[in-house]
Amino acid sequence: MTQALVSAVVVLSCSLLSVFGGWGIVALVLRWARVPELPPSREPTPAGSTAPVLSPRDDASESPVLRGGTWIGVLERLATTGALLSGHATLIAVVVAVKGLGRWADLKDNPGSTERFIIGTLASLTWAGMCGIIGAALLG
Predict the structure, then answer these.
(1) In terms of pLDDT, which residue wins out, 61 or 64?
(2) DSSP output for the chain
(3) What is the pLDDT of residue 89?
(4) Per-residue b/e over 73-82, b at no fewer than 16 CB within 10 Å?
(5) 67 backbone dihedrals φ, ψ, rounded to 5°
């Protein structure tokens, strides 16, 4: 195989592993951290204990799960891995800044989503960083 073909296979493999592997890793980390997708309210039961109950919302725009998070995470991992594979690690700061500033209004209005956002972002960036570093090492 030629060097260009090997490089293309490494870049493609690391990018796919970053994007799709990160999907599962982030979900697993959020589950381990016990971060709920929807924060339940608790109501008393006839037995005297309390049980989680999802309460209806008056305003449908106040969603505790941030919209578009899956696709933003995919793009974040792709950009992070790409930055490392291209030797421009400082571009990761741009990715983090764009994501943080883009979500600022949502996080300010839904403080319950902040924990999920931070844990998911750190898990996603860590996974993408590992994929990018390994790929850069393989590229030499």
Answers:
(1) 64
(2) --HHHHHHHHHHHHHHIIIIIHHHHHHHHHHHTT--SSPPEEEE-TTSSEEEEPPPPS-TT--SSPTTHHHHHHHHHHHHHHHHHTT-TTHHHHHHHHHHHHHHHHHHH-GGGHHHHHHHHHHHHHHHHHHHHHHHHHH-
(3) 95
(4) bbebbbbbbb
(5) -70, 145
Distance CA 89, CA 77 (A): 13
43 bridge partner residues: 51
The tens digit of pLDDT for each residue in 29-43 reads 988 887 665 545 666
Letter for the amino acid at 113? S
Q: What is the mean pLDDT of the chain?
A: 84
Tokens of 41: 């309210």
Residue 135 has which token pair?
């790929």
Q: What is the dihedral of CA 68, 71, 77, 82, to 10 degrees?
A: -120
The C-alpha atoms of residue 140 and residue 96 are separated, in whole angstroms, by 26
CA-angle at 78, arms to 116 and 89, nearest 5°: 95
